[in-house]
């Protein structure tokens, strides 16, 4: 595969579809296929940009995960993990269940991230995205929240150790990135910033703004919890108000960003009330920060997003487009994409890039929610 230095890399393989807990599970990698085909049908993604993921080695996985946990995942892959071990390693519920060859399919997600990281640092591509990744809940010794191996934490540690880079993680998923936070909570090599729905009512329950790290890691964890039903204006204001001084203060060499799109009002697993306006704006702002502070070095990951037909493909397309400085899209979606997937979709497919908001509900407590969000955002911003 020939890669032009000025190209943006796009990690993709049909093999990434095989990270799948069950046909009914909300974490459905079909959203990645829908996004990829939307980009191709729109003439926005070329085959020369596609990076085929490799499988991460045990040595790479254990940059974050314990050896016994990796071995447990291998046992689960073959269906020989005992009931006691299943509970110990996080497989006691349907959220994160065992599936065949899960080690291989999970390690491929990590390998895709590490391959992209190498290509960016070595100048083979200028930046890139790995929308099939973003598994930020996996803990060092336990599966958690649909996540087996934590590709974000592993990639951050890999860049720090192999290339001696200062890494900053910017996580905009609606759920707090607890696995990443706890992996680095007492360390000062990597800074983790997360803006998310408050854990008062949402998994995983962590991410309070007072969670700032411990020992050497104090101030290297930055959390901006937002109230349920936060809308676009408040979200974007709090995001810019907090992330900008953090980047300016930390001065990272590279940014890893997590683009879960479950802050959208149509997402079935969260309580946020944002639209595609926010989801389109976020990656472009992060790209601008990278241009200013990291010489353009940025990796963008997927993450959450559980309305796979009406929200994810359009939102994730703009993660990729932001990296190429292609403007936000308007007008009709490619007819071939709409026609191809219409018969499979359990709901009406969107036909335009715009968010029509036909079923958007106005929130009566907007002023109260905005005031609470602003209070916490100002508190966080004052530390930098």
Automatic annotation (TrEMBL):
Keyword Transferase: no
Domain spans labelled Histone deacetylase: 25-321
Keywords, ordered alphabetically: Acetoin catabolism
Pathway participation: Ketone degradation; acetoin degradation
CDD domains per the UniProt record, alphabetical: HDAC_AcuC_like (cd09994)
The family this protein is said to belong to: Belongs to the histone deacetylase family.
PANTHER family in UniProt: HISTONE DEACETYLASE HDAC1 (PTHR10625:SF10), HISTONE DEACETYLASE HDAC1-RELATED (PTHR10625)
Physiological role: Role in growth on acetoin or butanediol. Involved in the breakdown of these compounds used as a carbon source.
Protein name from the UniProt record: Acetoin utilization protein AcuC
